[in-house]
Amino acid sequence: MIVLWIALAVLGVLLLLFLFLIFPAVRRHPDRALMDGMVIAHRGLHDLPGRPGAPENSLAAFREAIGAGYAIETDIHLTSDGEVVVFHDDTLDRMCGVSGTPESMTLAELRALRLAGTDEVIPTLCELLDLVGGQVPLLIEFKCLTRAQSDALCAAAAPILDGYGGRYMVQSFYPLMLGWYRKRRPSVCRGQLSSAFKKDVFLRRLAGCLLFNVIGRPDFISYEHHDAAHPCRRLCTLLGAHPVCWTLHSQQELDAARDRHGFRTFIFEGFIPEK
Q: How far apart are CA 248 and CA 225, in angstroms?
């Protein structure tokens, strides 16, 4: 009997620890109402048929999204000379056809490149904000792989965003980035990006279980739609996190994400969602 009571006590402690780690923000950020039902153009409205001059994360793609009335998801990096630029990949190969990373080059060096063979250049965060001007909401992903990168990118981007008059939310796969915003910009709506990471290393799979929520206490969980049934993702929604899904490639996927899995905000690409 004593052994049973000890086992139950241990299980109870482990359950409490699990809930402590996975719990999202207790608050209900006002921007959650803004996000409810929102469809967000992934890296802008890009590569549409008949409009080949609007590659992802270009000012042309952002103009297309604004014109269609969609919120915009985008990504930011920090250059070697401390400028915040809009770009997704960790390397320049796919979009610019050259080796290197955004972090290894200056803004001037990046400006000499072109996106996907078009005339479009890599924009700065300031240029994006000037273009959008509050016309549509922004969901900004901070791209960082280390604590040093995260701290430097947050320290450079936050003052720029402080002066922006439009609505925006921030998100990242890197939990320490959310921790930075939780401590230094608590009024900003923040989200934890994740997926099941089924084929990844153990630490990443822990991240897929959202056990690092303890660091950033996210207002929303932005989860890969293919892994919508993940029990920890569902639990976070039950605990109060706003559910966002990425990235949907058809109306059928969007309908399933909404109707079968209870997502409330939808990041899409490659099609035009039904109004």
A: 7
pTM attached to this predicted model: 0.95
Place of tokens 């950033």: 216
Please state whether beta strands 71-78 and 39-42 pair in parallel, antiparallel, or not at all (unpaired): parallel
SS3 264: coil
Residues 214, 23: contact at Cβ < 8 Å?
yes
Distance between CA atoms of residues 200 and 198, nearest Å: 6
pLDDT tens profile 253-274: 999 999 999 999 999 999 999 8
The answer to whether 208 and 233 are in contact (CB under 8 A) is no
DSSP 170: E
Q: What is the pLDDT of residues 99-123, one digit of tens each?
A: 999 999 999 999 999 999 999 999 9
CB 124 within 8 A of CB 86: yes
Alpha helix segments (H runs only) across the chain? 2-22, 31-35, 59-68, 93-96, 107-111, 125-132, 147-162, 175-184, 202-208, 213-216, 231-238, 251-259
Q: Are strands 84-86 and 71-78 parallel, antiparallel or unpaired?
A: antiparallel
Task: Fill in the DSSP letter of residue 1.
Answer: -
